[in-house]
Amino acid sequence: MAEPEKNRVSVDIYGQTYQMMGKETIGHMRLVASLVDDMMREISSKNRSLDTTKIAVLTALNTVNDSLKLKERIEELENELNQLKG
To answer: Any bridge partners for residue 16, and if so which?
Structure first.
């Protein structure tokens, strides 16, 4: 079975242009880039003294934190569903 073709798109994040490549749709990749850009700008607006690297790290930390919370919530809901089935 052949690998799905990868899409490429140029995106702007916090004033820098990046080339993204992935199996997701171009629209999805643009949405991801837009959300990252929005998060970085929000963090920057709250503390103007942060450099780009610190803003990027804080954005990554917030994103991973949100991801972990969602995974925990999914596990809770799966457990509740299994109890209801059982």
So the answer is: 13
